Amino acid sequence: MPINIPEQLPARGILKKENIFVMGESQATHQDIRPLNILILNLMPEKERTEAQLLRLLSNSPLQINVSFLRTATHESKNISKWHLEQFYTTFERIKSRRYDGMIITGAPIEHIPFEEADYWAELTEIMEWTKTNVTSVLNICWGAQACLYYHYGIGKYELPKKCFGVYKHTLTDPTVKLVRGFDEEYLAPHSRYTETLKEQILASEDLVLLSHSEEAGPFIIMSKDEKHIMLTGHLEYDADTLAAEYNRDANKGLDTQIPENYFPGDNPLEQPLNRWRSHAHLLFANWLNYYVYQETPYQWD
Fold this sequence. Notes:
By secondary structure, the chain is α/β, with parallel strands linked by helices. It folds into two domains: about 5-240 and about 280-295, Rossmann fold; about 240-275, no CATH class. About 30% of the residues lie in helices and about 25% in strands. The protein has helices at about 10-15, 25-30, 45-60, 80-90, 90-95, 120-135, 145-155, 200-205, 240-250, 280-295; strands at about 5, 20-25, 35-40, 65-70, 90, 100-105, 135-140, 160-170, 185-195, 210-215, 220-225, 230. Strands 1, 2, 3, 4, 5, 6, 7, 8, 9, 10, 11 and 12 form a twelve-stranded mixed beta sheet that branches. α3 (about 45-60) links the parallel β3 (about 35-40) and β4.
């Protein structure tokens, strides 16, 4: 599918080198179709890397998508230029009167603190409340998934004895659900987090269904029964080298960091890791866009 993104966005050059179909506004406006409007709340520190990862996955369908990036107004990002934020991002105050077909809320490296202690928690809860009426479907990733579970369903996060860090096997609880249509019975996905969501609390909820689970990494794909919220506790969007970059960053800081499990060939950090989850990442995003956004959103919002 073509994705309509700003001409100067750095991710545009990365995607074009990969032969991913991107277009500018002038070309997009001449297509006589109703594009989907997707809003991405990017809470990750390395925003440009996350932009490219998500846009790459959103490109894998025949639908045209207009993508907008949202940032928090109550938190100052330190790993991205002010120019980049002002050029390519907007704030909630500017868009809260609009409606979106789909939204993605990313992870954030703040698992070690209670949700309420995040400096943008009040703003995030306002945004999450707004999605109930202004967004057709919300895809929440890692910390974003935990925040969604906590705010909407009262399910907390719990500290792990050691970091869940690596690539793990997952199985499906119900392969007939549209979101996981086409998935293998066993597949791989990366995780990188210090906290977990308890399987027992998800199964006990009258509002949630557990779609996929890992014996090592715990619950992975969770969906609300009204199909409004989809929660991924891991990172299918990660590149092959993302966990390696996290490991090297922490090792260079002198932190006692563990080698990601089931990741480096022979558990040797000098070896190049392979992306063994790419096909399922593309499949999940394509299923989300088709079945939970495109098929459910009105052609014209009231």
